[in-house]
Write a structure and sequence with these properties.
The protein is of the alpha+beta class. It has one domain. It is built from one helix and two strands.
């Protein structure tokens, strides 16, 4: 499962469904490549 939250602990993105052992990079790539997937804003830390 991949979850993204704001600094004040509000969930803004959840990607469930990954079972077993997988690398973090695989899950992140899948989340970014989905049609309405995770959006990564450049320049934000």
């Amino acid at each position: 499962m991949l979850c993204v939250c704001t600094p004040d602990m509000h969930f803004v993105y959840v990607l469930p469904g990954w079972k077993g052992f997988v690398a973090d990079g695989w899950i992140l790539r899948d989340a970014i490549s989905r049609r309405h997937g995770l959006k990564v804003h450049h320049g934000k830390v």
